[in-house]
Design a protein that fits this description.
Blueprint (H helix, E strand, L loop, with lengths): L2 E7 L16 E6 L11 H10 L6 H19 L2 H4 L7 E8 L2 H4 L3 H12 L2 E8 L21 E4 L4 H12 L5 E6 L2 H17 L6 E6 L19 H13 L6 E4 L4 H5 L18 H13 L4 E4 L7 H7 L3 H7 L26 H13 L18 E2 L3 H18 L4 H4 L10 H18 L5 E2 L4
Parallel strand pairs: 1-2, 1-3, 3-4, 5-6, 5-8, 6-7, 8-9, 10-11
Helix pairs in contact: 2-8, 5-10, 11-13, 13-16, 14-16
Amino acid sequence: MRRFSLIGRMGPEDKTGVSVVQKDSAEFSINFVNADGRLDFGLGHALEQLSTHGVTPSESALDLALTAALIHAGDTRISRAINAQDGWTREIDVYVPVSDPGRWAPLSEELGALLRFLTGDRWRLFYRPRPKRMSSLLQETERPPSEGLDEVCLFSGGLDSLIGVLNLFEANRSPLLVSHYWDSETAKAQSYLLGRVQQSFPNTQIRSIRVRLGFDQNHLDTGEAEGTQRGRSFLFFALGSLAASGLGKPATVNVPENGLIALNVPLDPLRLGALSTRTAHPYFIDGMNKLLQKVGIAATLVNDYRHLTKGEMVSSCSAQDFLRREVGNSMSCASPAKARYKGMSPRHCGYCVPCLIRRAALKRGLGIPDPTLYTVTDLRAQTLFTDKSEGEHVRSFQLMARRIQRRPELVRILIHKPGPLTTEVDAYADVFRRGVLEVAELLNGVIAEPSMV
């Protein structure tokens, strides 16, 4: 097990000595400014896209985005299997050059604890001043933010985010859409759906930015990679806050996520740590909002769908005709590329947790047969083995449904397993119950059991 130290650099002139706290850690530097003096790894392109909408973010919001990019680098380029004694907990120190270290340094422990909640790792953050020439990286645009632009909505290309965007436009609201991507399947879903949304709302200008931000071996050569990406939402929220900080007024960052996935209660005792994501958990969103307030970023993350199941989101969507036409092009699967191992083009697997929740939601709320392509098209066609990926989560949902049907009072206990809940407890308990039973209805008659091998 190794501890890692990731050092952010601001161009070839940034030769400031950084004394790492853990002397025996593996040190890696990431240069965020290219030879042309432009921010790299998608951040410079994000700022350019924002400027076309008259949006100039704050330096603090850019500091947050730089911090999130470094966290994302560590999260995706440091292997849990190689570096975690318990299977998921890595130890990573991050050294971030920021515009105002005095503002960030007192929050380092608080942010480290929040990130540990999100990813299951031990993070330590250290802040230093940016080089003088880089003390200000932002230039005011020549015009104010585009007319009517007063909120942000995160758009991942998934079903929940599509519904969130459609409802906003149906309500004559005009958000700035913010997308993050790295892989081609996510990129294709986002690009296609944005084009279709614009066609469906011809009298509304769809304002959006799409940020390709990630790290491969050419950017951070640890010789390792990690696919769990438990920290991606921190990056996504930071990019949304970056956009919101430049709207000239306190702004909402909409985070459309159904309540079952937002809570993500472990379905069995083994789904803890890195196996149970907390990307939109209420505790994490609340912690992010407190952080934004303390560093002076006038943005508030809000999930208006936290008390709805995915099926309830589908059935209550304001643009039902659009949803029926295009829902098959949204992307919910955790790893669509794995279809290639079966000789198929990338598509939803049909049996991971997000796919099962999606299938149940569309069965309940769409009103037509599910048009999504799945590698496992019919869950009832054969026995699904629980010691293989096709049946693992099916059985977990079936067992959880049986537990809460037999003992409904358990839901108020189970919802606290992923993290603390101090408000709206009754509503969260009820959405968890309804969400599990929604999936159970999909799985009625599906046989999942251990193989005989």
